Amino acid sequence: MQELSKSNKKRLKGIIEGILFAAGEPVALRELEKAMELDGNTIQALMSELEKDYGSVERGLRLVQVNHTWQLSTKPEHYDFIRQVLGQQEPTGLSKAALETLSIIAYRQPITRIDIDNLRGVSSNSSVQRLLDRGLIKEAGRMEAPGRPILYKTTPAFLKTVHLKHIEDLPAFEQFAEGEQQKIDISASMAENMEINTVEELN
Questions:
Q1: Per DSSP, what are the bridge partners of residue 150?
Q2: Mean of the per-residue pLDDT values of the chain
Q3: pLDDT of residue 56
Q4: CATH number for 195
Q5: One biological-process term from Gene Ontology (predicted)?
Q6: Among the four 80, 146, 157, 183, which has the fewest Cβ within 10 Å?
Q7: Distance CA 194, CA 164 (A)
Q8: pLDDT, average across residues 25-48
């Protein structure tokens, strides 16, 4: 890691801040390394300082890390004020069935829809489609099996939604077994951290 003076740190953090603001979407570590001609450890250290800076209550933005990318985002506690100015509508909530499906995918990914159906005991067609539409899951190739069914996995948007940096940060479960109580427990745990309302829906 490169040694930096206090004034140089401020300058470099300002450059990073400008890049993230202008990008408007997640920026990868390697892109910052190339643009700023700094090594990864130095970038990581600067990001840690920026994260602390944005952690203060008077700041309106937060620094969000997902895997090895960063993005500037507004704080959840300010959403109502932002929505009033921009006229954004409240996003449609996920059904309990969709949340249950998302929980299964998160813990068993990559997984086919047939396997999801077997775990839930009902069809998951509409739930999978809703999650695809919301950008919370995506196709992850096909299984080498008869019919070559599509595999699904979660996206960086999912990690951002549940406030996690890596999929490994999900709450640990000894085993994802069949059974209504465990499915309810896992779905409830997922819902606690999600910025998505749940709504009643069949599947």
A1: 142
A2: 79
A3: 76
A4: 1.10.10.10
A5: cell division
A6: 146
A7: 10
A8: 89
Domain range spanning residue 21?
6-86
Could you tell me if 98 and 145 lie in one domain? yes
19 CB neighbour count, 10 Å cutoff: 16
CA within 13 Å, CB half, 173: 17
Spatial separation of the C-alpha atoms in residues 123 and 189, rounded to whole Å: 23
Specify the pTM: 0.55
- Quote the CA–CA distance of 192 and 91 in Å, as a whole number: 17
Question: What pLDDT, on a 0 to 100 scale, did the predictor assign at position 15?
Answer: 93
Distances (CA, A) of 198 to 19, 96, 140, 149, 201: 35, 6, 26, 29, 9
Q: Residues 97-147: pLDDT tens digits?
A: 888 889 889 888 999 998 988 888 888 887 888 888 888 999 999 988 888
